[in-house]
Amino acid sequence: DVQLVESGGGLVQPGGSLRLSCVGFGFTFTSAAMRWVRQAPGKGRGGVAAIDSDGVTSYADSVKGRFTISRDNAKKTLYLQLNSLKTEDTATYYCGVVYNGFNYWGLGTQVTVS
User: Fold this and answer.
1) Is 74 within 8 Å of 7 (Cβ atoms)?
2) Which string of b and e fits 57-78 if b means at least 16 CB within 10 Å?
3) Of 39, 58, 70, 97, which has the highest C-beta tally within 10 A?
4) CA distance 71 to 76
């Protein structure tokens, strides 16, 4: 079964940094395009960053220059480095993968900037 397990969230002051991790199980991690999305209280999920199997990245305008997505295929781990955090970055962050035509998501990790 496909499983995604996020970690690394927490409470941080504005301007601070965090690094989120997501370990993937049950699929071929090296060939998978991965992404991070987030959901703030009372709002829908929105894309944050994505990385394909070749390491090509893309970002939402709101996080460009502050967040960095990366992957370690040997560890089957996806990362999101969050720098210069703002209060509006407060959300639950989810990693996701499309595998065999289905979307899979982890349970999320909470980031609170206050």
Assistant:
1) no
2) eebeeebeeebbbebeeeebbb
3) 97
4) 8
The amino acid that residue 3 corresponds to is: Q
Where do runs of H (alpha helix) occur along 13-106? none
> Which residue matches tokens 């970002």?
59
**From CA 4, how far away is CA 34, in angstroms rounded?**
11
In the structure encoding, which two tokens stand for residue 5, read together? 């397990």
- pLDDT tens profile 29-65: 999 999 999 999 899 999 999 999 999 999 999 999 9
Helices (H), ranges, 1-114: none
DSSP label of 32: -
